[in-house]
Amino acid sequence: MTTWILPVAGAAFWAGLMARPLFGERMPVWSWLVAGFVALASSLVLAPADWVGGDPLARAGLLKPKEEPRAVSAVTVGRLQVGRGSPAAPLLATLGVFLLAVGWGGAHAHKVAGSLLGRLATERVTVHGVLRTDPSAQISGWSAVIDAGQVEWEGEAAAVHESLWVQGRDRPPPAVRGDRVVLEGRIMVPDDPEFADALARRAIAAEIIVTTFRRLGPSANPFVRAAQSFRSFVGRSIARLFPPREAGLLMGLALGDDSRLDPALARDFQATGLGHLLVVSGENVAMVLGPVLGLALALRLSRVPRFLLAGGTVLFFVVLTGGEPSVMRAGVMAGLTLFGVLLGRPRSAASILAGAVLILLVVDPALVWSIGFQLSVGATAGMVALATPLADRLRFLPRPVALATGTSLAAQMGVTPILLFHFHEVPGVTIAANLLAFPAVSPALLLGIAAGGMGLLVVPIGRVLAMAALIPMRYLEIVADRLASAPVAWITTNGRILSLAAGVLVCISAWWLRSGRRLPRAAAIAGAALIPLFVWVTALSAGPPSHLVIHFFSVGEGDAALVTTPAGASILIDGGPDPEQVATKLSALGVKRLDVAIASHPHADHIVGFPGVFARFPVGLLLEPGCPDPSPIYANLLLAAREEDIPVRHPRTGDAFTVGDVHLNVLSPSRCFTGTESDANNDALVIMIEHGEDRVLFATEPEEPAQQEMLDAEADLGAEVLKVPHHGAATSLPEFFEAVDAEIAVVSVGPNDYGHPVPTVLGDLRRTGARVLRTDLAGDITVTFDPEGLLVESAA
């Protein structure tokens, strides 16, 4: 079998699964499957097989074919050589695999759509099953995934083999993946189409809102139960031997348990492109398998015992870490490699990767939509195709350094189009961060696991190993912390054209590098000439504006805005409801630092994004009301500021700040409100931004009591631009809008169940002569204070 067959088949099957939603419903599932089989059969007919000798001595060059003895020829095993027929044969074979994938994906989708649990929507049920994931804390409550085995409702019961999204209140229950559980609650089909689609792509048709959760015990499978026990014992040992920060890092790295991961550390790793180190990934399989194979060789085990030991280790590690997509990919690849060695017929890395992808997608077609699986396959494909050619081009480096650099570059080239497609950004420091982290990852993992295991047997030795493991772990933390806020630009995109262009560029680069050709002189001269122009244009676009500019970000039902001035001052007012969205928008604008960050009040839709911003950008000062609030989100904000050494101030009415060429005057609050309908909203900071004669009023969230207090104090509220309070809710006074008398009023709003913005409020604003703009309709809104008047741009 030629080396291209499996990679092409894997790519065709992948493409068929992803193409199914586009046109897969135009024909019945069986039609796609029949068409696929017909195309495959036709390819075999058009590609007649030649039976050729397969003598290993001749293939090794030890015996010329014409000298081959008849006895040897008579007993050698032949092999089927495909591809000497019509050139249409490979095209038909590829088409056949593609059509089979469309049909197979359709069968899987119909199975999910016909789910019994989905048909039981709104029913109160009792579900018996096994936790597939650890219960994880959310902003409100907790969530998990359960593999249901039985469901009971209204005196009826049925056996099922379906997965169910679990949504609970309060704290996560004391249970781990693999545990047998019983849940009582109401089955629901999500109202949010995006969430419902995300669940469907994980082969989940419904969710259960849990009212009662009972853990029956550990897994009934002895192998899984052993993995649970090992994970529990080693986890407790790690927690005992390591400081909390490093214990959380090691448990994520070695055991796939991110429940104790330090949030600030996670943000630093994500901001440097090292997020794959925070959880178990495919490379961990190789790190664990390497010492085991070394032990097998040291014990001089024969081929079969060595295969059983290594295969059992891989299987145990996959179960231990929860079967993450990247680990399953690496586990199947390792299994195929070991099986090939056992048979004495090792295969190329490309064939093994393609075979693993085919096996996993046939078993679980939903994996094609898993971002983790896509990234894992992309990184591995990049390394298979490009690591060696890149290393060969880096002849000026020592060979080990060249190999490490080539591997990191190849992996990054493989995942960059995927990252741009899904997340619209890639850290500019990711190559440097991965190169610096590379030598410390294996020692940190292996010494950490050894410390945890030895700590169960001989605690003093475990402590010594833990001290040794802390060295590479602390080094990784320093690399992530220092590079996270480095003034290096991010690669960002607002659309998917750039990700497609990046994918095409990677393919062209792979072809060129593997061809061994030199770069044409004309291309080299053109590149050298264009690089300075590109750098100049990039620097120009990232520089300070000519006039005061306000960027009102569209962040859904939340607030976030950036103020930039000709002197280079950058001020962020609120951070939005998403952990990364505002940080991404700042990166896209070329922001390198923030002079002031203002958290108007401790509601999630205004401050959730700040920790991600703090991890990426140096911040000179954080302003926030400082009024008591029990919210864990508020506590997380303060913790993030403290960990990044950001000074915090709690301004009051009359306080003023000067940042370069812009002045910030605080108009409210004068105190922390008590007894109002929403004290937190009335405590919100109201700030007038002044740049010469230009004025912008950020009336973030004050309601009628705070607004009336400003009116009674005869505060100077007049401004050309107003950020409308509270997303346009019916909590504002018409007199407040009259006092501001803005030319432009911006409502930061998104899809919501509150009716924001309220029509009467919009009417009150328009009666003052203001032009009302909404981020839910216009997208990001940019207002520039040009000498000839206000210039407004929108993304829509």
Give a short summary of the structure:
The chain is of the alpha/beta class and 796 residues long. Among the domains are: 5-113, no CATH class; 116-220, Nucleic acid-binding proteins (OB fold (Dihydrolipoamide Acetyltransferase, E2P), Beta Barrel), CATH 2.40.50; 549-794, 4-Layer Sandwich (Metallo-beta-lactamase, Chain A), CATH 3.60.15. The chain contains 29 helices and 25 strands.
Write a structural description.
The strands form 5 sheets. Strands 16-15-14-13-12-11-24-25 form an 8-stranded mixed beta sheet. Strands 17-18-19-20-21-22-23 form a 7-stranded mixed beta sheet. The longest helix has 26 residues. The chain has 29 helices and 25 strands. Helix 8 crosses helix 12. About 4% of the residues have low confidence. By secondary structure, it is an alpha/beta fold.
